[in-house]
Design a protein that fits this description.
This protein is of the alpha/beta class and 285 residues long. Helix content is 26%, strand content 26%. The chain has one domain: Rossmann fold (3-Layer(aba) Sandwich). Helix 1 packs parallel to helix 2 and helix 6 crosses helix 9.
Length: 285
Amino acid sequence: MTEEPSRTLSNGMRAVLEQDRWRPGFVNLVVDGTPQSQVNPADPRQLGFEYVQRIGHVIDLLREPGAPLTAVHLGAGALTLPRYIAATRPGSRQQVLELEPALVELVREHIPLPPDSGIRVRYGDAREGLTRLPRALTGSVDLVVVDIFSGSRIPAHVTTVEFYREVAALLAPDGVVAVNLADGPGLSFARGQAATLGAAVKEVAALAETQILKGRRFGNVVLIGSDSSLPLQWLPRLLAAGPHPSKAVAERELRDFVAGAPVVTDATARPSPPPGRTFLAVDRD
């Protein structure tokens, strides 16, 4: 890629593919100045952004190592995690829901998917698109990744208990949902999302860089939820796998983290907070 291909999206934002200045071989998808994804076309098993690495570690622990998965991704970005699953778990079946066809066209033109990747992309709003997925997926999905941003913010309608219940209906009995959030000091949005996801599934845990999870700076928090008991023996392995420094909260510590935050509903939902002026948004997919 010798220049920076770009495309104007339906909302007027500009999507650009840029060579990463610090990691040779990696390409960044940037939307209106906010990095949304990072992918290494030559080796999709290499993950860049910290929150993507954390979700990648969760993927590695699902089922038997290398076994195919059934996965649904809400939000496409540069298709980083679908590529990762296709590379590390051949034969997986994956559905991707993305609002912006122009974004996916840009990515697939300049960073093509491998042949027979098993990745199918559907277009439209993620929440509405859930109702149009094949009925056979209901109750049979191993992994749902929720990574939906409009620019630097998460739209309100994909932050509610009604939405998370629709997502949970896809999961196999021991399936897992991974949600990428962005929040700042105090973590009021992230705490509300942990409470909301916890109202839709049986168990929730949160993963992030230590200072973020302590509410000291803006950044990404990954929530993991399941309708069966989460295999909490994962947590030491997830923390050891990095990126470092890492922190995880679950069970009583998660209840303390939520600290009475209200469950978000369709009637009360608001978009996620914008990044602060000094925040360089590099943790996106």
